[in-house]
Amino acid sequence: MSDTITKTFIQENTVLLNDYLKRHLPEDIANEQLSSAMQYSVLAGGKRLRPLLLLAMVKTFGGSINESTLKVAASLELLHTYSLIHDDLPAMDDDDLRRGIPTNHKKYGEAVAILAGDGLLTLSFEWLATAGLNTNTTVKLTRDLAQAAGAAGMVAGQVSDILGENKQLTFKQLKQLHRQKTGALIKYTALATNDIVNPEVDNQKLLIQFAESFGLAFQIYDDLEDVVGTQQALGKAVRKDANEHKNTYPGLRGVPQTILDLKKCVQYCHQALSKLEKNHVSTELLQGFLNYFQLD
Ligand code: GRG
């Protein structure tokens, strides 16, 4: 049941988000190459997981999906896309393909790709500032997004990842890296929802717990898919040598333990949702998001 509700929600809101992004990404900035490069990566698709999760959380707590909340959600996608463009650069992961097409720097060259990322990062904050929410909420959202994306969040995780590439990280360090690199933006979906809809304090904490576990599960799942196909993971048929990937769960923990780690994270998500249900919050929509982690 939750699966159908969530699938419909995702289908409908992906259309809304894509349409919003297409209509509002600037076409008239001074340099045509720059606007083209910014549009190229944002409109290349992607799951839109972070903005969808944010909108689903807002809806769960009785908020509406309107021009303001769509703009807040879309601003998060801009920021996420900037991080992918920069992550793909030769100085970082040096990737050729992203979202099924050549990476931004492969298409536009390194300098324009860096600047397209910079443009998206700053535009993200402009959209947040002009989303039409009240001043107090806007200030809180700005603070939360800056903290999640910046030197205490995603940027810190990226640095640890790059500097730790040829080192054996401890499990604690790896968890922290994942929490910052991937988890912080996903946690922001809960913080932003709390800023916008202001649920009871107890429920705010549970929503954050859900998002933190979701973020870790998301990264672990991505790591697992990288090493083994998901179906193969269940059959434990290893495609690549897991030890090649030092800064990943499978690299450090091995595939069987990583599958257990993932299950544990998903279980924590369910626990947070069950507690919300006890507090009379209907969580079917959020439960459906957990089906992303196909375990069995
Ligand atoms: C450059 C400061 C800076 C940070 C980059 C997000 C990130 C930090 C690096 C991405 C590395 C990576 C591939 C991590 C695995 C999990 C992940 C974040 C995947 C990409 O996100 P998806 O799967 O992508 O949501 P789509 O394209 O669907 O939006």
UniProtKB/TrEMBL annotation:
Enzymatic reactions: isopentenyl diphosphate + (2E)-geranyl diphosphate = (2E,6E)-farnesyl diphosphate + diphosphate
Gene Ontology CC entries for this record: cytoplasm
GO biological process, one term: terpenoid biosynthetic process
Pfam families with a match to the protein in the record: polyprenyl_synt
E.C. code: 2.5.1.10
Alphabetized UniProt keyword annotations: Isoprene biosynthesis, Magnesium, Metal-binding, Transferase
Cofactor(s) essential for the protein: Mg(2+)
InterPro entries per UniProt: Isoprenoid_synthase_dom_sf, Polyprenyl_synt, Polyprenyl_synt_CS, Prenyl_diphosphate_synthase
Protein name: Farnesyl diphosphate synthase
Record organism: Pediococcus damnosus
